[in-house]
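>> Question from a student workshop board

For tomorrow's exercise we were told to take the sequence and the ligand below, predict the bound structure, and bring the output to class. My setup keeps failing. Could a helper post the expected result so I can at least see what it should look like? The ligand is 6-phosphogluconic acid.
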Amino acid sequence: MSAQVVRHEDAAALATAVARALLERLVAVQADGREPQVVLTGGTIAREVHREVARLTPGSGVDWSRVVVWWGDERFVGPDDPERNAGQARADLLDRVPVDPAKVFAMASSADAASAEEGADAYAALLETHGTDAFDVVMLGLGPDAHVASLFPGHRALDVAGRPTVAVHDSPKPPPDRISLTFDALARARAVWLLVSGEGKADAVARTLATPRPQRHDVPAAWVGGTEETVLHLDRPAASRLP
Ligand code: 6PG
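>> Workshop helper replied:
Here is what the output should look like for this input. Compare the format with yours to find the bug.
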């Protein structure tokens, strides 16, 4: 993967820096007269970033009513399940900034769709109707097994092409049923930012950046990247196995 690596002292510093960068990017896209399209993800470090984005929003100049919000993946659980990425992002960020609810596109919960497959299809339709040809910023966490979104090593979801979403079952990270964007959809990103914190991710980081590029089924994270930039935001422990 050809990526820029940005090192931060710790998770808190990472969250603050990424939040600032996101707000600046949103302002810049809006200054260009476009509505930014942002893709959120789940996980611990993403939650910290979301909270920082909310905290730093006042005075940032971002007009949240003109930001379009998507998710890279979702846990296919009930609408009020605390595991739901959309619920977490609402609590951490979206309920704290003046978004236009009509521009926030959560993936289906198990109350909205009979199966993760049906939810994945519904999200593909939403992307078709309300998406554009490119996401401005896609934020992704990284698993210790080098998964991103809900694209796990060895899973058949890694082979899905020609459509933007996929249902995932038997996820090694609970809960087992999920909906994810595919590599094809993630490839629409202008900017991909991987947010990675902790010693437990150090090996996955090193494998993601290895040359030659590892197999997609071994290191899914090595196969995502933005058309304009790919940035790995690492805290010191996550970067500890890099030269
Ligand atoms: C999820 C994810 C997943 C996550 C990584 C990193 O819903 O679980 O979207 O891809 O971002 O597993 O999560 P942590 O930051 O909690 O390790």
